[in-house]
Amino acid sequence: MNNIDPEISELLELLNAREQFDELAQLFEHSLRPWDQYSEEERKWLIAKAASMMSQRPS
After folding, report:
1. Residue 55: which of 13, 11, 9 has the closest Cα?
2. CA separation, residue 22 to residues 1, 3, 19, 46 (Å)
3. For range 8-34, the mean pLDDT
4. Is 30 helix (H, G, I), strand (E, B) or coil?
5. 20 and 53 in contact (C-beta within 8 Å)?
6. Cα Rg for the chain, rounded, in angstroms?
7. What separation in angstroms does the CA of 27 have from each of 4, 35, 42?
8. pLDDT score recorded for residue 1
9. Percent helix, strand and coil across the chain, each to the nearest 5
């Protein structure tokens, strides 16, 4: 049973990361603004969010 627990934990982390990524993607899909029309603050937030999601990937 101990061999399964880390795999389940990793799967849940991947599913959570995918869910967060989907939420971020929806922000772009529902926006009619091209990237150059985002404010500097919005761009920084989006980049930081994506970087945070990537750093949370299980290794």
Report:
1. 13
2. 32, 30, 5, 13
3. 79
4. coil
5. yes
6. 15
7. 35, 12, 11
8. 46
9. 75, 0, 25
The pLDDT of residue 18 is above 60? yes
pTM: 0.45
d(CA 43, CA 14): 25
Alpha-carbon distance of 11 to 9, in angstroms, equals: 5
Name the token pair of 39.
């404010």
C-alpha dist (Å) from residue 28 to 2, 6, 11, 25, 58: 41, 34, 26, 5, 25
Give the pLDDT confidence of 34-52 residue by residue, as tens digits.
Answer: 888 889 998 898 888 877 8
